[in-house]
Design a protein that fits this description.
alpha/beta, 2 domains
């Protein structure tokens, strides 16, 4: 089998011993360090997505799916919103569009009418076609010869058997001359070092190597793939939903730096040990096994029951080392909140929101401080955002024993003075 990054034939090292399931052919290229599954073909994955039980696995069931898509829309607005707002009448295709929620956002919120998508899962495609009235087909070739101003391929490349050929096809045959590609991939090699790993995501080592994927990217191997395919990063974000980039055409580069495969193997070994220690509640050991493990670092400080001053010092040092980790700012904000230092608490909650705009607890805890300080207009704006991020907060409290966000929103409006402009710009 040829490596899609360096084109070397049959120079693989097995990593199957790291997995509980060892029949998938988990391998790493000894020339460039690219990692993949030998025994997964694109056709197998396509059938996997077409199966009806996959709809159950993905919880494609009304409210649950709506909540998931609502959170993802928040991230699209943060990353692609400025681009979509600054351009008019873009021709857009979303490859692997699920139900078409991103296309709906482009059309209904940003006014781009020429939108279409592809989706292998027939249930998701039918939902988008009938309920959202979108043009969704199986493959990009089904639309005929077209040039697109924006091609979205978020969380697609890990499912493609030959990602180099796939990207080159999009670049050469479908991307307009001044068009861009919006792409996101999971970076499994430093998953627990990701700025926004949450508790449920840190549940076990197997979770970072899903069977539904073919390719396991590191930052280096992904950069090498883009260079080979003549794509240049003009915008990036590595704080939520993997590594997201906006790409423009550039001359292809075939002479790129390889990645030492044995060092990558050791990285996975250390992450596996760190996961096992974390799940066992040995947070200091988890940190020793893998230095960049934000959640373990915070849990370790909690476990040591340090004083507030010591916690502030410890977290501040971690922020200096890893400034883009939302959980550090969130934890620091909580400590300041308990101390009654609301100025520093508000500052750090705001930073946490910028780094991870889909986490409802950030909005709730910051809004509660502003409500306590009787800054009702600012608090109302945050409760409104919380209801977008987590719609069920209309009816269910985010924190047990507390009011719902909708209850708090009503209390805010009840306390606003009459001369505050409403949504229409008028006053009562």
């Amino acid at each position: 089998m040829k490596c899609p990054i360096c084109d070397t034939n049959e120079n693989w090292h097995s990593l199957d011993y790291l997995r509980q399931r060892r029949d998938l052919g988990f391998i790493i290229c000894k020339t460039c360090g690219f990692t993949t599954y030998r025994r997964r073909s694109e056709e197998e994955l396509k059938k996997f997505y077409e199966r009806s039980d996959y709809n159950i696995i993905r919880r494609f069931a009304g409210t649950a799916d709506f909540e998931t898509k609502t959170r993802k829309k928040m991230n699209h607005r943060m990353f692609l919103g400025p681009y979509l707002a600054d351009h008019r009448n873009l021709q857009i295709i979303d490859v692997g569009c699920s139900t078409g929620y991103f296309l709906e956002l482009c059309r209904d919120e940003y006014g781009h009418q020429r939108v279409c998508g592809t989706e292998w899962n027939p249930a998701h495609a039918r939902y988008g076609r009938h309920r959202l009235e979108l043009d969704i087909r199986t493959n990009i070739e089904d639309f005929g010869p077209q040039r697109y101003d924006l091609i979205c391929i978020e969380h697609v490349l890990e499912h493609i058997a030959k990602p180099d050929e796939f990207l080159l096809n999009l670049r050469d045959n479908y991307l307009a001359g001044d068009g861009v590609i919006a792409c996101a991939v999971p970076i499994w090699y430093d998953f627990i070092g990701s700025p926004s790993v949450t508790a449920h995501e840190a549940g076990g080592f197997e979770s970072i190597l899903p069977e539904g994927h073919i390719n396991v990217f590191s930052l280096r191997s992904f950069a090498n793939l883009l260079a080979k395919c003549g794509l240049h990063v003009v915008q990036e974000n590595y704080s939520y939903y993997g590594y997201r980039v906006l790409l423009e055409k550039t001359p292809p580069i075939t002479d790129f730096s390889a990645e030492a495969w044995d060092m990558q193997e050791q990285s996975l070994v250390r992450q596996k040990a760190a996961f096992e220690a974390f799940v066992a509640g040995r947070f200091a050991d988890a940190h020793r096994h893998y230095h960049r493990f934000p959640l373990a670092l915070v849990k370790d400080i909690d476990q040591q029951q340090k004083s507030p001053a010591e916690r502030i010092t410890g977290i501040t040092q971690l922020i200096a080392e890893m400034p883009n980790v939302d959980v550090f700012h969130w934890y620091l904000a909580r400590v300041y909140n308990l101390l009654g230092d609301y100025g520093n608490a508000i500052t750090n909650y705001s930073r946490a929101i910028r780094l991870k705009p889909n986490d409802p607890i950030h909005y709730w805890e910051l809004a509660e401080i502003l409500f306590k300080l009787e800054e009702f207009q600012r608090a109302a704006a945050l409760y409104e955002k919380l209801l977008v991020v987590e719609p069920k907060c209309q009816f269910v409290p985010l924190t047990a024993g507390q009011p719902t966000a909708l209850d708090r929103l009503g209390q805010c409006y009840a306390n606003l003075p009459d001369d505050i402009p409403d949504a229409c710009g008028t006053t009562t």
